[in-house]
């Protein structure tokens, strides 16, 4: 069996378990780093999802969750800027999902990722009454945020977005801030700003780049962010920084909930405004039309996309790591890094991440920090530093059960 076959065999088949739904393909601001508009084919799609496409999508969702008896099926409304779809469509969508849940017993949590500019009291009421969680794109304080997140007239958007973030935090709405790391600024500036806004859950994402680019080093930034996370949560868990918690989860041998960390298949399914179905939408950074498939929700069930060659190629690439990654001690925790960051025009995805050296440094630092902070309890109640439980130590041998005896 080849290494690639072995990888595929290690990850069992499962149905699509979440959807990314593009309800709008246009945006009302002009972010310089946005991956979405790197692919000009998005302009060929309808600006907004029509009621006709929406009804077909809802039918496919109900068929899918009923067929596979899913317990839950998270859906993220996305864009472009999804709030351009309109508040009434959000109510209509959430109401339909509630009805599907009542008929099938499958919970369908709905979330939205937005730039926040359009948020007002009507939107807040919608999010709160419909239990729609909100991820708001906010790159920390104004002097960082407004570098990249500007209007089409060239002015900053920070004031409007900060106002929206504070409004969200004041209501009974699940809210997370999504920032993009700018390593030219210390992580404390982000952390202090989010704390001042009343936002305790946020992510500072690695900037999108392919192997053909030369992004700035990020290791020092994220090592500093880990220190801030530890300080904030030393007495009690008060602050969730998603990338830090995901890396810790993966380093401790568990599955990270997001696709950018850990060795596991990326099986995200994206539904476009016209009902076509694509692979992971961030793969657009590879070039025009790179995510396009021949599948759509009118002719195909949701899970049929698993047989679509381009979707399958992206899924397989996420688990078939290059040789350097296979030899790395952090292979399982890192998983080769975020799939789009492994792309090159010459080798496709058969590369280490463009951030490989940084990721190694980040995981090595995190491992060292965790080893100095974590303890395990022996059967008698004695606490032992986790370093002493690593493979090959006396305690590891004590805690490992002896193999059962076999009759001859």
Automatic annotation (TrEMBL):
GO molecular function annotation: 4 iron, 4 sulfur cluster binding; metal ion binding; oxidoreductase activity
Q: Which Gene3D superfamilies match?
A: Aldolase class I (3.20.20.70)
The UniProt entry, under Pfam families, shows: Radical_SAM
Required co-factor(s) are: [4Fe-4S] cluster
Q: Which InterPro entries match?
A: Aldolase_TIM (IPR013785), MoaA_NifB_PqqE_Fe-S-bd_CS (IPR000385), rSAM (IPR007197), rSAM_sf (IPR058240), Sulphatase_maturase_rSAM (IPR023867)
Q: Which UniProt keywords apply?
A: 4Fe-4S, Iron, Iron-sulfur, Metal-binding, S-adenosyl-L-methionine
Query: Does Transmembrane helix show up as a keyword for this record?
Result: no
The yes or no answer to whether the keyword Iron-sulfur is present is yes
Entry protein name = Radical SAM protein
Q: Taxonomy-wise, where does this protein's organism fall, top ranks first?
A: Bacteria, Pseudomonadati, Pseudomonadota, Alphaproteobacteria, Hyphomicrobiales
